[in-house]
């Protein structure tokens, strides 16, 4: 027996993914712009890049889980 996915839970998850993606992009662009002006070392830029990649990867994994849940093929 399969249950119907909760559209409200999927919508909440999609909104969370969207907020994380937008916030990550704004943070990353702002840090890339502000870093050289503050004289930060390149290793901090690399650290910020890795943090942004981790956030993007998390958003991708959660979005795929929500997509699978919406199609009725997985858990959320």
Features:
76 residues, mainly alpha, elongated
Task: Work out the oligomeric state of the chains in this entry.
Answer: single chain
**Distance separating the two termini:** 17 Å
Helix content: over 70%
Largest beta sheet, briefly? none
- N-to-C series of helices and strands: HH
Stretches where pLDDT is under 50 for at least 5 consecutive residues are none
Question: How many helical stretches?
Answer: 2
* Relative strand content: under 5%
Give the overall silhouette: elongated
> Could you say which structural class the secondary elements and strand pairing correspond to?
mainly alpha
Mean residue pLDDT: 91
Radius of gyration: 17 Å
Compute the number of strand runs.
Answer: 0
Q: In summary, what is this structure?
A:
With 76 residues, this protein is mainly alpha-helical.
Structural summary, described in words:
The radius of gyration is 17 Å and the shape is elongated. The protein has 76 residues and is an all-alpha fold. The longest helix has 32 residues, at 7-38. The protein is built from two helices and no strands.
């Amino acid at each position: 027996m399969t249950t119907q996915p909760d559209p409200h839970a999927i919508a909440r998850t999609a909104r969370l993914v969207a907020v994380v993606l937008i916030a990550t992009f704004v943070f990353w662009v702002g840090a890339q712009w502000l870093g050289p002006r503050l004289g930060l070392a390149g290793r901090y830029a690399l650290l910020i890049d890795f943090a942004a990649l981790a956030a993007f990867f998390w958003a991708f994994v959660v979005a795929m889980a929500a997509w699978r849940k919406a199609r009725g093929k997985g858990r959320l």
